[in-house]
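Supplementary Note 2. Why include the ligand at all?

Several targets in our set were suspected to adopt different conformations when bound, so apo predictions alone were not considered sufficient. For every target with a known small-molecule partner we therefore ran a joint prediction. The input for zinc ion is given below.
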Amino acid sequence: MNCRSLFVHFSPACKIEVPERLTVSHGALVRNGLTDRCICLPVREAVDAEILLVHSEEYLEAVKQTPHMTLEDLKEFTLQYGDVYFHPNIYHCAKLAVGSALQLVDSVLMGKVKNGMALVRPPGHHSMRSAANGFCVFNNVAIAAQYAKQKYGVKRILIVDWDIHHGQGVQYCFEDDPSVLYFSWHRYEHQKFWPNLKDSDYDIVGKGEGAGFNINVPWNKVGMENSDYLSVFCHLLLPIAYEFCPDLVLVCAGFDSAIGDPEGEMCATPDIFAHLTYLLMNLAEGKLCAVLEGGYNLTSLAQSVCQTVQTLLGDPLPPLTNLTGPCRSTLESLQCVRAAHRQHWSCLRHAGTISTKRIKLSGEGNKDEAEVGEEQKSPEEKIWPEPPKRICPPVCSAVVLPDGVVCPDIIILFQIRNGLALVGDAAMTMTCVVQYVAAEVDSRYELIKNFPFPSQGCTDTSGFAQAMFSLLLPLGYQYNPSLVLLVRMPGSGVCDIMWQQLTGLLQSFAHGHTLVLLQEDDKACVGPTASILLGNPAPPLGQLPASLKEDAEAVERLRSRLQADWNLLLTTGESTK
Ligand SMILES: COCC(O)(O)CCCCCNCCCN
Ligand SMILES: [Zn+2]
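The joint prediction is reproduced in token form.
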């Protein structure tokens, strides 16, 4: 009998969610010397009770059967779910993925580490209570959030999902839970992009007690860039996140939102994740757990993972260059989300409406019509510069006391990262430093202008916080200074913890080259300021109340005056009452 061998040839079921995603990411971390600077946490399998924090018994029991299934049964089993592939070993891997996320949460909440990242497969944010979906089996981050609440009594958790797909599994898990604020941006294209859910749109804000605690930012166009991502952080996520004042930040760190990714088809570069990570580290006293989700271009994935981990390690941020303004589609999405959430967040109450008419700046191409030739390139053909090396100066901070002389060039010339000086007359010294740096140091260095805060100053923390996010951050990113000169004028009305938050956020610019000038009688401020300059997290501001109307209006007036020249700000029309 001629037996013909039967080849059951399975083309790899999934071409993009491949093992190399972890090996190239880890390899890049090793190559960049980052793993040597990290504690490598042991992994463990999650136990049933932990999985049942989010998933149903029947779903867990069903998944438990998969290791014993034949390939035929596995294929049959898979058909009941969408876009997920079961392998005899995936149950084990999925338990390890959850266990890794929980190990990270334990280490951060027990204070063993400041923050960390879990590189896991399979990812999690699409899996639901009783269903696998989109490569996901168990919802790693949703389980981590429930675990943190149950085991450590964490009161408020912010989940930021910068993966390019909507984590509907996370949304459904917490939609009526005001203790978990879920923020997700995702490619949507008016519901034409997977998972094609109406539930992913901006008007799905949460239910019952959870109303306002679910924020969906739909990207209705591809090709979004760094400016679009930063605008959403500055004008939506950060103001709400500070008002929410989380005790823990979890990140669904999917990097398919980076350039070159076949799923996302966006154009944001890997170094943007250094800034997104840093901006979130100023919350929850730096307690941040990032858990890998998607990311399918192995080059941008590896670079983005390194940018994220390097920021978690406290390295200076790479300046973001050639930032343009947000595109019209982003302004429309932002306007819709802010309108949908205005009733839930006081930081949005006095916020002006965002007019989507773009003030075309001289020489600025109109991003809304993709540049000729660019749109023909497939994601894989996209090229982008290697993220710049992020060098840590040998000395982090220097303090100059009254009898010393402030010589800022040692900061600029990379010998130290930042510094603080106690001076007799802060205003006069500021003028000297500005002239000194402009004259002595290479004229190509730009100085950050001392931003004209609302004339009457922001009397209360909320008003000041609004000015920080809607004015100072966008301006700083656009201006891209080489030195930040931060002067605490007597009677500035800025409370100490706001001062610390401000000092922390301003490290986003100029490779962290910050020179702080304090009046010599302001000695009490030296310790707290030096602590931030040395990379410690700022204490929380507390849940922010509504800002005073006159402060919000002062910021709006200032913004409308500045918006002609600075296109990271949002062009606003009449502020609605
Ligand atoms: C946490 O999962 C990470 C992820 O969000 O990247 C998964 C994306 C699944 C993408 C599925 N595409 C289906 C196309 C159907 N025509
Ligand atoms: Zn994704």
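The chain has a mean pLDDT of 88. The two ends are 87 Å apart (CA to CA). Comparable summaries for the other entries are listed in the accompanying table.
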